[in-house]
Design a protein that fits this description.
heterodimer; A: 284 residues; mainly alpha; two-stranded antiparallel sheet; 11 helices; 2 strands; globular; B: 393 residues; alpha/beta; Rossmann fold; 2 domains; 7-stranded mixed sheet; 13 helices; 44% helix; 20% strand
């Protein structure tokens, strides 16, 4: 049974990781806690609704959602963060929170406060491997997360663009002195991170067949906990912490004898790390 | 610096717009003398919004029909409603407002157990009769003799679920999922009570889960390992939809038994074909041949372009009960209305026949059992055994 819980944990871990990655990428280059990122995540799910009205197809919906959230991410950094980049760091933080709240209300005003089902029904099959049941839905989420992670890994480690991102994250001034256009690099971090969040939002919409305005609430603070535990700005840390959290939640929920509010775990972990290792697992 | 202030102002104003203020029903300029005000509250925003809206619609339909038939005591009935966002603190504030500012002569709660339970003592304190349309928690009516309940007591419905489980579905090994709040716990208590009374079955897995949980797979996996032949899951429509879907996603072919929390078009919508075959205990029989029920269903569908559900029907009935009481008392005096309400008997309502109110102001009426067939709720059975449906007080 433990193996069974692990499969489920890997799927939710995949989602947490995808969302938290955007947060960590942004923190890495801008040292800003981009709380509004969770609003972009929810946008991904809502854009699926829009996409299906244009052309009812899941692949198109993915492309559409990721494209729109990428653009949204670009706009956020250009018009919200850049103008206040030299202000004390509390200013962009508050602006980000305000934007997040405003986005939630915007979704509520446009699409209503109710939970909306995903516009396409999926019929998942359950595969059996010996004693273990592999639900198609979990496999889908996990596999897709791995695919995105692989792409991200390739971008960050094997391309010039990725090199620039890592350089700017390390030291912005020196990178600029070396000829890197930090403005564009930062924009790109937002674009990539937001596209990932948009994909995650859409996957969650599919998995739970639910799209609603406050769906970004829990991912907002959970991804924060993930990057604190993993190390703010560290991609490896985020991956480890994201999947770790998903697994731990599934195992505890399955085995603890009392009603365990799974969201509490992320916070407990965050508090523990802040107390004993505030820079996180892989942070510095 | 100025730019920052401006930006901060803009963002905070935008965010501030978001905080919803309680919605006040439009009172078309009627003079106080010619109007009877009935208070109403239900969640119109938040996770329970679909239920709250349905409840409000039911209440409004009732008011509309009452007024079409000449109003009450020659006066027009006005529904004064607020959004309690399913928060107890809001419900208390709303109760005070309805009683002291709006001066309603009676009220209906179209909300969940938490808020209703918090608001009831306020209505009792000011001696304003209040009917809980469907909230199940026992403490609600214990607030005092002005508080009535139109729906089922949690323990009564729970016992009915136990009855369905053992007598209709012949279950022997039961997995029980309990939602962690007033609602879930009172239902679970009833289920276990009836299972003990009837004997012959045991609970092989029991787990309480937090409201708002979306991913039940860990719990369902653990439950499945105990090889139950029935899954009883107390839930509201969001959780119920996820439970049904995830059971199907896991490839687990087990009968699911739910309760009135599932009774919503939202459950059918979100669960999709995973809802097929789910059985629930509830307070509305869509196949009831009674003209009162069928007319209610027809009128609701016509006016709102949506199928009514249990909360809509219950709120409709609650308002109708108040109207009957006011007519019987032939007065707007709260004490007289209260007495008239207490004395009502054999009333045919949209949700079935109300035999009477007990001294504890709980209803004595049969529990409906419905099944999802072809994406709709239909008659499956009815529980009228006095052993089960008579409230303990």
């Amino acid at each position: 049974m433990v193996l069974q819980q692990i499969i489920n944990g890997l799927a939710s871990g995949g989602i947490y990781t995808l969302v938290a990655l955007g947060l960590t990428l942004v923190y890495g280059v801008l040292k800003i806690l981009h709380i509004a990122h969770a609003g972009i995540y929810a946008l991904g799910a809502y854009m699926a609704l829009v996409a299906y009205k244009i052309y009812p197809n899941i692949y198109f919906a993915f492309l559409f959602a990721m494209a729109t959230t990428a653009v949204a991410g670009y706009l956020v950094q250009k018009y919200l963060y850049w103008p206040i980049i030299d202000q004390p760091r509390i200013v962009p933080l508050i602006a980000s929170i305000g934007l997040f709240l405003a986005l939630e209300e915007l979704y509520r005003l446009i699409w209503g406060p109710y939970v909306i089902p995903f516009p396409q029904k999926f019929h998942w099959k359950t595969y059996t491997l010996g004693n273990i049941r592999l639900p198609g839905a979990d496999l889908f989420v996990f596999a897709l997360s791995i695919v995105f992670l692989a792409i991200l890994y390739w971008i960050v480690n094997k391309t010039k663009v990725g090199l620039a991102m890592r350089a700017v994250a390390d030291d912005k001034e020196v990178s600029e002195a070396s000829g890197i256009n930090s403005k564009w690099t930062i924009a790109l971090s937002f674009i990539i991170g937001s596209a990932l969040a948009g994909a995650a939002g859409l996957m969650v919409g599919v998995y739970y067949n639910s799209i609603y305005p406050t769906m970004g609430d829990v991912p907002a603070y959970k991804s924060l906990a993930v990057i604190v535990v993993g190390g703010m700005g560290s991609i490896e840390g985020t991956v480890v912490a994201g999947f770790g959290l998903g697994l731990l939640e599934a195992l505890l929920l399955g085995f603890l004898p009392f009603a365990f509010p799974r969201d509490a775990l992320a916070f407990i972990a965050m508090i523990i790390f802040l107390l004993i290792k505030p820079e996180g697992l892989f942070g510095e | 610096m100025k730019k920052v202030v401006a930006l901060a102002l803009v963002v905070s104003l935008t965010a501030g717009f978001g905080w919803a203020k309680p919605q006040k029903a439009k009172l078309k300029g009627v003079k106080l003398k010619g109007v009877i005000k009935i208070g109403f509250f239900s969640p119109l925003t938040g996770f329970a919004a679909a239920d709250g809206l349905s409840a409000l619609r039911g209440a409004r339909l009732a008011v509309e029909q009452i007024n079409k038939n000449g109003g009450l005591l020659g006066k027009k009935v006005v529904l004064v409603n607020y959004d309690d966002r399913v928060k107890s603190s809001e419900a208390v504030a709303i109760a005070r407002k309805l009683v002291t500012k709006d001066r309603v002569i009676a009220a209906v709660s179209g909300s969940y157990s938490g808020p209703t339970r918090a608001a009831a003592p306020i209505f009792q304190q000011f001696k304003v009769p209040m009917i809980s349309a469907y909230a199940v928690h026992p403490e609600i009516t214990k607030a005092g003799d002005y508080i009535f309940r139109n729906g089922f007591l949690g323990t009564v419905e729970g016992k009915a679920m136990g009855e369905v489980a053992l007598k209709f579905l012949r279950a022997k090994r039961i997995a029980l999922l309990v939602i962690d709040n007033d609602y879930g716990h009172s239902l679970a208590e009833g289920v276990k009570m009836r299972i003990r009374q009837l004997g012959g079955a045991k609970i092989v897995y029991e787990k309480t889960y937090s409201i708002g949980e979306k991913d039940f797979t860990p719990l369902l996996t653990a439950a499945r390992a105990q090889k139950p032949d029935l899954l009883i899951a107390t839930a509201y429509y969001n959780e119920a939809a996820q439970i049904a879907r995830q059971v199907k996603q896991m490839g687990w072919k087990i009968q699911i038994l739910g309760e009135e929390g599932y009774d919503s078009p939202k459950f059918l919508e979100l669960a999709g074909d995973a809802a097929e075959g789910v059985i629930i205990t509830t307070n509305l029989n869509r196949d009831d041949l009674s003209s009162i029920t069928q007319n209610f269903i027809k009128n609701f569908k016509t006016k709102y372009n949506e199928d009514p559900d249990m909360v809509g029907a219950s709120s409709y009935d609650a308002v109708m009960l108040l109207a009957k009481a006011i007519k019987k008392a032939h007065s707007t005096n709260p004490a007289r209305i209260r007495d008239a309400l207490q004395s009502l008997q054999n009333e045919v309502l949209a949700t079935g026949v109300l035999y009477r109110f007990t001294r504890g102001r709980e209803v004595v009426k049969p529990v409906q059992v419905q099944i999802v067939k072809n994406g709709e709720f239909h008659y499956y059975g009815i529980i009228a055994d006095p052993d089960v449906v008579t409230p303990p007080w």
